[in-house]
Each structure stands twice: as C-alpha cells, then as structure tokens.
TrEMBL record, chains A, B:
UniProt keyword annotations, A-Z: Coiled coil, Cytoplasmic vesicle, Membrane, SH3 domain
Coiled coil residues, start to end: 370-397
Family of this protein: Belongs to the sorting nexin family.
Ranges for region Disordered: 61-114
GO cellular component: a single term: plasma membrane
Taxonomic superkingdom: Eukaryota
Protein name (Swiss-Prot/TrEMBL): Sorting nexin lst-4
Organism ancestry: Eukaryota, Metazoa, Ecdysozoa, Arthropoda, Hexapoda
Cell compartment(s), UniProt: Cytoplasmic vesicle membrane
C-alpha cells in the first residue's frame, strides 16, 4: 500500500528491545505498513526512525477512514470476535490485543485461529455477539430469561448503564420481573449447587452458608512470554489453587473475560473489581509485580466469598489446563441462563416471612452506609496514593537533602585536616549517611505499606460501588410485589408465591450485605492493622538507624 | 492636621490587646494622627477600624514628603542620636525605637531625655556621632590610633565595608600599620588584663590561655514592659551571670550597642553575631522566646571565648545595674583606644620566631576551610529552616490528612450500627487519632530540634564569615613586614621589632583559629549530637504512639 501520514493522538511508550517505537501526541508519522497485524502499524517518526506503534493511537491526516476512537473507550467485550482488523483491539488490555491467541495450551497457531473466527468479527450479529458483555457495570440482560408478559421489552436491546435506576426497565433487564412473576424457569442442569442462607438468633436477616471447604489461590510472579516470533510479548500469570495444586496460566484478558461473566451472572452479589487497565510502563517489573498483587487481592476476595468461590465459571477459570476444554467451558459459561435475579432460584432462604417496615429501614440505612463508605474509602485511597507518591518523591527528596547537608558539613570539617583522620568529620558525615539511608527507606516504604493498603481499598471501593445496586434490586422486587398486590387479576395463590420470591430476594440481598460487613470487620480491618504494623516497622527502622549513629558519636 | 491617605507598603501585624492595628500591603489608610510619636501613626483601615501602625510601613498617596525608606535598610548606628523625629528610628530594633529611654534603672523620664539629647540628632556632626558604628560589619576605625606617618589617611572618613580587602587602606584602618610600625602606644590603664598564648608540643602555632574561672550567664524568659503610659511596650531580657548571681535587665538595643563595641574593638577575634532584627510577629510569645534562645547562644559563645569573656565592655554589660554607672561605662567603652590590631599590645605570644613558609600554607589552607565551612553551614541552615517550616506546615498537613482519612473511615463504619458500639469503628478511628497526634508532634518538633540547630549554626555562620578577615589581618601584617624589610631606611633593630610584632599578629590569628576549631569539635559537635538525640526521641515517640494503637487492635 502507498505511504500515508498519521497524527499521534496519545503518547505511547515503546517497549525497549522490541520492534516497538515510542510516539508522542501531536507527532506526524509516515505509515509504511498496515499489515503487521494485531492492531500494530509500522511507520517512521519525525526523526526518521522506523518502528511499530498501535494503530489506535494515531489518526489519519488525509481524508481517510473516520476517526478512530481513543484507546480506552467504554469497552466492548471481545469475546468471540477476532483481531483481523484494526478497529476492535481496544476492548482488551493493551498488551492482550491478540485475543484469538490462546495461551491456555501454549499452542502457537494464532494465524489459523484468525481465519477460523473471522466471521465473528465486527457488527455481524451472531449468537456469540449477543453474549458480549461490557466490562463496565452493564446490567445483565438475557432475552431468554425475560418474561414475554412484560410490557417493557421495547428498550432491552439498548445499552444501559448500571447506574440507570429506572425501576421498570431495570427490573426487566435484571431478570427481576421474570423471577418475581415466576415466569423464569431454571435451566435444569444449571443448578448443580444450591446456596443456603442461614439465620441465627443474632442475624435478623440471615447470612450466606459459610464455606465448608475454604481454599486459597496463589498467583505467582508473572512471566513475560513472546509470540509471533518475538514480535509481540505478553504477561502470563501462574495461578495455583490449593484444592488442585495444579498451576494454570492466565493472561489479563482471561481475567477480564471472567469478570464480564461474573458481572453478567450476578446482580445480587457484588463482584470485586479487576485492576484498572494501564498503558504506560506496562512491561516494567514494578508494574507487573504490582498488578500481580492487585490480581491476588481480586482472587482472595473471590475465594472468601461463599457464593462466588463456588460458581462454575470461576472453577473453570481456576482449573482448566486444556485448550479445547477451555473453549467449551467458555461457551458453556456464555450460555448460562441462571443469571441476574434468577440466581435466586438456586437460593435456599429461610422460610420466615419478612416484615416490610423493618426491611425498608435497613435498606435505607445501608444505602446511606454504602454511600458513606464509598466516599471514605475513596478518600483514604486518594491519601494512600498520594502518600505513596510522596514517599517515592517528596519525603525521599527531603531526607536526601538533609543527609546531603550534614554530609557536606562533615566533609568541610576535613578541609584543614590535610588528609588527616578527623573523628568529628566522620561523626558529622555519619549523620549525613544516616539521613540518606532514611531517604532510601522512605523511597521503598510506599510500596510496603501504602500500596498494599491502596490495593485492598480498591477492592472495597468496587464492592461499595456495586452494593447500592444490589440494594436496589430489593427495592425493585418490593415494588414488583406491590404492583402484583394492587393488580386484581393476580390470584391469592400466585400472590403468596410472589411474596415468597420477593422475600428470597431480600434474604439474598441481606446475606450479601452481611458478607460485606464480615469482610469489613475481618479482611479490611486486618489490612489496616497490617498497614499500621508496617508503619511501625518503618519508624522502628529509623529509630535504629539514628541510634546506631548516635552510639558511634564520642 | 487634616486627614490624608496612605498606601500600605508592607504587612504589619498589630499586637493584639494594644492600640496597634494590623495593616496589609496594598491597603489604603486614612491617617488621623501623625503626632503619636516614636514612628507610629494613627489611622482608619478600609474596614473603618482605627489603630496605630508604623509610619515607615506606609507611603503617602497625595503629593507629600518623599518616599520613606523600607523598614530595614542597611542600618545606621543610633548611638547618641535621639528619637524626636520619624526618620531615624529604623536604626534600632523596631520595638526599641526610643533609645534615649534607659531601662537600666527603670526610670521613666524619657520625655526629658528627648529634649536633652535633641542636638545629637541627625546629620549634625559631633563627638558622639564619630563613634557611631554600623551594625553591619564595618571595620574599626579610630583616628587616634592611626599613625600620622601613614600615607593613606585620605579615605579613612569614608564608609568602607569589612569586605574591602584593599590591603593599604585596610591596614591603616584596622590599626595594623600603627601596630606593626610600633607607632601605636597602649593607652596605659587600658591594658588591665594581659592575654597569653600557649604553645604545647601539639600546637604548632599556639592557642589562647584557657579560662581559669569559667562562668555562665543565663538569660531568663523575657518580660514585656510598657512605657509612655502603656502606649509603647518593649521586651526586657533578664541576664544572670554565674559569678555575680545578680540579675540585670537588658533590651535588644543594649545587645546591639555591645555588639558594635565588640566589633569595633576586635578585628583579630571573630565576634559572634546577634540575632537578626525582625519585624513581624515581634510580640508573639514564640518569637520572644526564640529570640531569648538566640541571645543565649550569643552569650554562651561569648562566655566560652578566652578573650571576649574577659573584656571590659562585656563585663560592664553583664554586671551594671546602676543607670549612672551604665552611662559612664558606655562612655568609657566608646573611648577605648586599645582597639583593632593594637589589641596585640595586650597579647603575650610565644617567643619562638615563626617560619613564613609554614604560616603561609596554613593561612591559605584555613582560608579555603573557612570558605567551605561558611558555605556548608549556610546550606545546613537553609535545610534546617526549611525543615522547621515543613514540620509546622507540610508534614503536619500530610499527617493530619492521613489521620483524617482513617478517622473518617472509622466513622463511616458506624453508619449501619444504629448507634451501637463497634470495636472495628473504634480501632479504625484510633488509627486516625494516632496520625493526628503524630501531626501535632511534627508541628512541635521543628522548634525542638531544627530551630536550636539553626540558632547554633547561625553563630558559626557569623564566625566563619568573620574569620577570613581575621586571616587577612595576618596577610596584611606579613605584607607590611615585607615592605619594611625592603625599605633601606628601616634599621635592623626596628626590623627585629617589626618582625616580632608581625609574629604576635600571626600567633593571635592562629590562637583564634585554634579556638574556632575547638568550638567546632566540642560545642558544634555537641549541638549536632543533641539534634540527633532529639530526632531519635521524636521517632521513638512516633513508634510508641503506633505501638499503643496496635496493642488496642483486636
């Protein structure tokens, strides 16, 4: 193809040692190849250097195709689509742009896959496409699960955000209407596992049955792998569940796919968030190690959750090592019909009928609680992030300066010593060295205490952001129940069922709230305690350094 | 007089509880009285409030008298001048503007004094005026001490700064020429005390005879006194020398006068600096207490110095309690003829003739050393001042923010507790309280460690700035000696005396250098050690706070 020019829209840092080239917003590049594949183009920068850059980061200068969207728009699920064109590779993590390439079995036949899955591409509607789920909190919708009796079918093909609290449309889309009215049927085999809600004398509203076989999953330091003859590299994380002890290899895009499934399936359970996608410094060791820690937090929350930790798609994600089985499991998960409110079909809730007045108060109270928690968690996250940066920059700089000032004075002490040993000089220089050491401690400290605290809070921020929508499911169920009660055509018998199902929703919502409360008081509190312990160690370390220096003083 | 308007040039903080009014740069004031006296005017601020403000801080808006100089120009000695006008009260500390008023005997007859001393005012030359000494490092000049044989009389009425190293004019003005040539005679009774220079096997060049009766002087927390019926108030410091145990009352202006006398008398001994004059916040308790600490540092250095601690003007300053005697002592000090290089007439130096080559190397070496020390001390002072400010502002703010973030999260924990006790909430709020306490510790810390370090370094900065001029005296003496050696008219006998006197200068210079070195290794080093100890205590305190909080965690 003939050469054309493009303008760089966003900074991109090429990975050193690869064919990638760093490009900067505003630069004009001459494109020399567009058939590199996987969203990469080859071109010359203004300095005449040649290299690869992401097509999505540039805009054609001559009249050409319409503007390409920015690299991270509200993402579009890439499941089932392939990467044969330059338009659809932003959905995934930036280094995971080759989503047809499976690393499950470590086969290297991505080129074949590209051909096979070509028909799934872009706007051709097909079965898989319907199952695409936004990575954002898009409410669950599966046409099969919605009662055809509903009068609100008109807009259920539109994209709505989870923030939309229009009760009527939302109650349909969430599968709530179908469930409350009893029109949703379980998919038979789908309910392999029933979830129980317990209710002690202490719990007014019940809690999830605790896990009988708790397990953990370790995510090991990730490996950098390459494909396409070294042209592209990616990061693979090694996960080892304690119940199998078999390592599985997963990329960020697999987590992303899992997260989309979980969000689709559960709207009565808050799903912990995945770490944000991040572009810059993606191959830096620190970034990779940090993402590992973030994914570990996600995994830990999943493992501790009595519902999530037992669900099939999660189990598939943790255990599958065979590429064929992986694909089959993916298809099964995407066809799962027991999603949204119909999840309650698998819930065994206490029989006791609930009192509306008590429940309403508690829902209101928890709404305010979540709002407050969300706000305070965000605030502490901001502080943590800020302090981490300040450890690495400001505090380090301040203590370095203190150290340098003392050290220089100690050195000046030697100026009239004619090279002779001066204890005073050594002592003063030692003060300098001590503060330089403390500066180093500060530099490292942010990653030791503030960053893990931030990562923990990040999970809870996601949960407190999701729980209001869980709470809202209860309100919608209540509303639907009242609608039925006011409807003279609904028979008494049917009404009893409706009330029971609304109660199951309420029990489910409170079991989930109870779990959050338990996590807060155990997991979050332990993280805060760990933080404090790390801070203690840090200041003790400073004390030791100063003590050592003082003890050497005459 | 009729009202006129003025523009405020500098911020001024009025002392609360007095007639003073805070005014801010850029404001327009309506002046209602200019006859308040002592440089104060009365006026209305833009809010219509009435109060006193310093005339020197404002500028007349209408065509009026020429602009008044800023409040702290290179100061002009106020000795002997009175304050009957608004133009000449900047010489002294801003609250010491009434320098005719003696607080020595606490008499309250300032109005009479004003009249008596009126003729001394301003530019009328008189005997006292000649004795005025700049508060800046103005080199000593006393016409009586200069050999009339000198050919360099032409410019000795001009103002020269101490930085002027023109050897010929400086050697005359410093009294060096007269001393080396033997034309300066001691004033007889002036040499009541001889100063010895010792020389051990260790000391190549000798050191001051150590003090046989060391003493200390305590400066107590200053009192605020008033005069002129409460219109003006001033600060009096109470000094108690250990050898009399009798308290004397001194104002800053008395220190200032003393410093001028010392600077005039000694150019072979480095005089420690007085604290800088400072305008803002002058009546704040913290400022007053800090100035006390600074003056204590000045006093301590004086007391430790084998020459300065014994000199008459210092003794007079420390002991005089009678106003008449005070005035007599002042006059005597101002007439002292044994000043500048002629101080060496009172020095008993070792007999051994010095080797030029060795001395020259050592002088060069110490010149470089002083330059380096001066630079490094200034640098560390800057750091100390910076850190002190950061303790009070930045670090305090950072830790407060951390504390607030945790505390808010702990409070949010209570939102679904319906007023019930929550241990988790208490624990998390405790983290918040801990960091708020640490923020408070930081706020106070700067005054505990950085400020005293700064004050100590301030003394040494003054010394290292003065010592090069002391060193230069040796160079000038050497030059003068060489001039004599080259001059065929100088007889061998006279030459022997010239060489001896040049050696005495050299011995004196090295005794002073030796004293500095000793101070550095003892006093300064102890201050650095104290600083480190205070820092240790601070971090230990933080450790204890965090430990306490952790121990309360479940």
């Amino acid at each position: 193809m003939s050469t054309f020019k493009v303008k760089v829209l966003y900074d991109f840092q090429g990975e050193p040692g690869t064919a990638e080239m760093s490009v900067y917003a505003g630069e004009t590049l001459s494109v020399t190849r567009t058939d590199v594949g996987e969203g990469w183009w080859e071109g010359l920068n203004p300095q005449g250097q040649s290299g690869l850059f992401p097509e999505a980061y540039v805009e054609r200068i001559e009249s050409g195709p319409p503007n390409i969207p920015p690299p991270m728009p509200p993402a579009q699920s890439g499941w089932g689509s392939s990467t044969t064109d330059n338009q659809d590779d932003e959905w995934d993590d930036d280094w995971d742009d080759d989503n047809t390439y499976s690393e499950i079995g470590n086969s290297n036949n991505s080129n074949n896959k590209n051909k096979v899955e070509q028909s799934f591409y872009a706007n051709e509607p097909n079965q898989n496409f319907n199952n695409q789920v936004s990575q954002l909190h898009r409410p669950n919708y599966n046409a099969d699960n919605v009662s055809l009796a509903s009068t609100n079918m008109g807009d259920n093909k539109g994209t709505i955000t989870k923030k939309s609290l229009n009760i009527f449309s939302a109650s349909v889309k969430s599968g709530l209407e179908g469930y409350i009215l009893g029109t949703t049927k379980d998919g038979g085999s789908s309910i392999s596992k029933r979830i129980r809600i317990y209710r002690d004398s202490d719990d007014i509203l019940g809690r999830w049955e605790p896990l009988t076989q708790p397990y953990t999953v370790q995510i090991a330091s990730p490996k950098k792998a390459t494909k396409m003859g070294g042209l592209k590299s990616f990061i693979a994380y090694q996960l080892t569940p304690s119940f199998t002890n078999i390592e599985v290899s997963r990329r960020y895009k697999h987590f992303d796919w899992l997260h989309a499934r979980l969000t689709e399936k559960f709207n009565l359970v808050a799903i912990p968030p995945l770490p944000d996608k991040q572009v810059s410094g993606r191959y830096e060791e620190m970034f990779i190690e940090h993402r590992r820690a973030q994914l570990q937090e996600f995994i830990n929350y999943m493992c501790r959750h009595p519902v999530l930790s037992l669900c099939e798609v999660w189990n598939h994600f943790l255990t599958c090592t065979d590429e064929k089985q992986w694909k089959q499991g993916k298809r099964n998960a995407e066809k799962d019909q027991l999603i949204g409110a119909s999840f309650c079909l698998s819930v065994d809730a206490p029989e006791k009928e609930l009192m509306n007045s008590l429940v309403d108060v508690k829902i209101e109270e928890n709404m305010r609680y979540m709002e407050k928690m969300d706000q305070c968690i965000k605030n502490l996250m901001q502080t943590a992030q800020d302090q981490q940066k300040k450890c690495e920059n400001m505090y380090k700089r301040e203590f370095s300066r203190v150290g340098e000032s003392f050290f220089a004075l100690g050195s000046a002490f030697e100026y009239n010593q004619q090279g002779m040993y001066s204890k005073a000089s050594v002592d003063v220089k030692n003060i300098g060295t001590t503060y330089l050491t403390i500066a180093k401690l500060y530099e490292e400290q942010g990653k030791i205490d503030w960053q893990p605290l931030f990562d923990k809070l990040y999970i809870y921020k996601g949960i407190t952001a999701n729980l209001p929508e869980v709470l809202n499911m209860q309100r919608m169920a209540e509303q639907k129940k009242k609608d039925c009660e006011r409807n003279p055509q609904v028979q008494q018998m049917a009404l009893t069922d409706v009330r029971r199902r609304a109660d199951v929703i309420t029990y489910t919502v409170f079991a989930e709230l109870n779990h959050f409360q338990q996590e807060r008081d155990q997991d979050l509190k332990r993280a805060l305690k760990d933080f404090l312990q790390d801070q203690l160690n840090f200041y003790k370390n400073i004390v030791t350094k100063i003590e050592d220096t003082l003890s050497q003083f005459e």
